[in-house]
Amino acid sequence: MATIHRLPSNLTSRLNTPGKHADGGGLYLQVAAPGQASWIFRHQQKWRSLGPANLFDLAEARRRAHALRLAAHDGKCPIQSIDGSDAATVAAGRTFGNALAEYLKVKSPNWAASDRDRNLRRYTFLFEQLPWFTALPLAALTQEHKNKAIAHFPAGTKNHELCGTYINAVLRYVEKGILLRVVKTKNGDGDGGDGDIEHHASMPWKDVPALFKRLAGVNIKPEDARALAFTILTGSRSGEVIGREKKPPAKWREIGEQDGKPVWIIGGDRMKARKKHMVPLTPAMVALLGKRKADDEPLFEVGSENAMLDMLRSLDGNGYTVHGFRSSFEDWGAEATSFDRDLIKRCTAHDTRTATDRAYQRSNLLEKRREVMTAWSDFLTGVNL
């Protein structure tokens, strides 16, 4: 029998080391970044969250994992017990307001002291106008509830966008114990207090195929819709596809072949890590590109730098961001497939290997990554479902 209880009682070092840390018997501590950890359980290549590590200690996580192993021994599917009535029972008495308070308790220490009061006032201002929403049990909360809450604020306003962003941040924290990630950007807005923070709220991966289907039916600004669909399929950053600020967009000269198969070769000067990145193109991606144009022509003639975000908002994107689909892709890879985590990361140009590993493993794993991207394309387009 596989060894269990491998993790030390003091998890400090593990909590500061990104990755999946096995305790044995299907239980893992998943660390997205220092301070952002959750317990997950694996059964027959499927993964499910057991809750955030800051709410459930190692002993509680082991107790829950033991109960799931007992269910498997009795011939039951432990994943179904997590997804079904057991999970609903646990969450039944917990409201969105409870979860919001927990989220802010963990989130607020990350804000600069000079900004903390202002940011808390912003959350308070928004959700004080939605008492019916904060009183909803998490188990009963639906997409319709979210849409109604967001619609309380006029479309196109800052409060409309922030409401969706904050709701998604809290729910993501409840599900995975992960705080909403932020990045510096020129025109963003968010919790940073200095006016230049943009939230990368990610759509739950199970919801992305429905959005993808809606994109295929867009008749107004179809080029913007195709650019967004291509960005989602390839797991790319907006700037890598349509350009931003002083960086040029992707052009047709970047589309070529490797071993007779189509690839998109992005030069290091256009990548965040300043390293060349090759994206294996699936038939769905190639179809979105359409007929080949001159080498100097952009892949997509979009209306502006915000074209894809505007398209997402027009489809009632509920505060999600274009960049957030990279997280949706990685979550899908971790929860719905058996692909190696590092391989998934390399599909989005996130190389998590050490310098020593990179020195010994110089392959770009293009064919293995093509398998991943093909599976993602099939999932989004409904192939083989």
List the main descriptive attributes of the protein structure presented here.
385 residues, alpha+beta, Double Stranded RNA Binding Domain, hpI Integrase, Chain A, four-stranded antiparallel sheet, three-stranded antiparallel sheet, 9 strands, 46% helix, globular
Mean pLDDT: 80
Q: Total strand count, please?
A: 9
Count of the domains = 3
Structural class: alpha+beta
Structure write-up:
The protein is of the alpha+beta class and 385 residues long. It folds into three domains: 12-91, Double Stranded RNA Binding Domain (2-Layer Sandwich); 96-201; 206-381, Intergrase catalytic core (hpI Integrase, Chain A, Orthogonal Bundle), CATH 1.10.443.10. Helices cover 46% and strands 12% of the residues. The protein has 18 helices and nine strands. A four-stranded antiparallel sheet has the order 1-2-3-4, with helices on both faces. A three-stranded antiparallel sheet has the order 7-8-9. A two-stranded antiparallel sheet has the order 5-6. Mean pLDDT is 80; it is low at 84-92, 180-199 and 356-362.
